[in-house]
Design a protein that fits this description.
Elements lengths: L1 H20 L13 E4 L2 E4 L17 E5 L4 E4 L5 H14 L4 E5 L5 H4 L11 E5 L2 H16 L17 E3 L2 E5 L4 E6 L9 E5 L4 E9 L10 H11 L6 E6 L6 H24 L4 H7 L11 H16 L3
Parallel strand pairs: 4-5, 5-6, 6-7, 11-12
Antiparallel strand pairs: 1-2, 2-3, 3-4, 8-9, 9-10, 10-11
Helix pairs in contact: 5-6, 6-7, 6-8, 7-8
Bound molecules: zinc ion.
Zinc ion binds next to loops.
């Protein structure tokens, strides 16, 4: 009896000490939930919440890709908390170093976790216009999202890229290559996609929204042009910036194209009739409303942006 107790005690001690022996592998509670889409391709699906709701730091799809040499992170979430939890999820699955942190664009929900990876000394990679976009956004992030950074919040935690993608860039993770592509102004002025050639998985960033209404921070007509090019890609699956992963990229892009066309055509019609911005917000693309989440918090801003852009045409 005593021997069994002793053995149980030693076994229990082993369980307690095990994380220390293996470099303190993080517990499941500290790690973000991720799905493996294909060998070495992991995604965490963000929640469909408004930008100001509790949990707003966890609304974007983020993830990582593991090669035989090292790991690339794709977007880091909207807070240090999410960035650390993503890093813990990586450390649970591989001991390989994190060599790249890739940001698909400037929005807070994709970049504010960057500093959680600083100790890994990765190269931070983004669109050629991302560095300027981050620099422009630092004050805004500190004003609106200070609670999502470590305290005291400071600008040094908002990390921009040290490596810029002019048009395309290939990254070698060992046994697998990532093809990065920088796009003309669409969702933002710094949209970047990542294609993993081993699994033919496309990370579209916010060039693709599913279920959640697309939020326009760039050019609606530019976005339509990029959608036409993305729809030509031959891929197995696509990770959108928001919403579920899809194996039918063309159909997913069709829904987004339909909304953006209705937005542009509707605003143009309102302008031709002398309609006010308020009338445009109420009337434009109204038939699209049942198809999308978070309409009331996103659609008015989209209309206002297109209205301002088309007003001077
Ligand atoms: Zn975005």
């Amino acid at each position: 009896m005593r021997r069994i107790r002793l053995r149980t005690f030693v076994a229990g001690l082993g369980v307690l000490l095990w994380p220390l022996a293996f470099g303190a592998a993080p517990s499941a509670a500290d790690a973000l939930t991720v799905l493996q889409l294909a060998p070495g391709v992991f995604v965490h699906l963000g929640q469909q919440l408004p930008l100001d709701a509790p949990g707003h730091d966890d609304i974007a799809n983020i993830g990582f890709i593991v090669g035989s040499r090292c790991v690339a992170v794709i977007d880091t979430g909207g807070s240090m908390r999410i960035g650390r939890a993503l890093r813990n999820a990586i450390k649970q699955r591989t001991t390989r170093p994190i060599c790249y942190v890739i940001n698909t664009h400037v929005h807070f929900d994709h970049v504010l976790g960057n500093a959680a990876f600083r100790e890994d000394r990765p190269s931070f990679v983004g669109h050629w216009a991302l560095a300027a976009a981050i620099a422009r956004s630092r004050d805004f992030f500190l004003q609106h999202y200070a609670d999502d950074l470590d305290q005291p919040a400071d600008a040094a935690q908002i990390i921009g890229p040290d490596r810029a993608v002019q048009h395309t860039l290939d990254l070698d993770l060992g046994g697998r290559h990532l093809h990065l592509q920088a796009w003309p102004t669409a969702h933002t002025d710094c949209d970047l996609t990542v294609l993993d050639d081993s699994s033919r998985t496309l990370w579209a960033g916010d060039l693709l929204f599913r279920d959640r209404l697309p939020a326009l921070d760039g050019s609606a007509s530019g976005w339509l042009a990029v959608i036409d090019q993305l729809s030509q890609l031959q891929v197995q699956r696509t990770v959108p910036g928001h919403g579920p992963v899809t194996t039918d990229l063309a159909a997913a892009l069709d829904a987004e194209r339909r909304y953006l066309r209705a937005l542009i055509d509707g605003v143009r019609e309102q302008l031709a009739q002398g309609g006010s911005m308020q009338q445009a917000i109420a009337l434009v693309a109204a038939a699209e409303k049942p198809h999308w989440l978070l309409w009331d918090s996103t659609h008015p801003r989209n209309v206002a942006r297109v209205y301002e852009q088309l007003e001077w045409e």
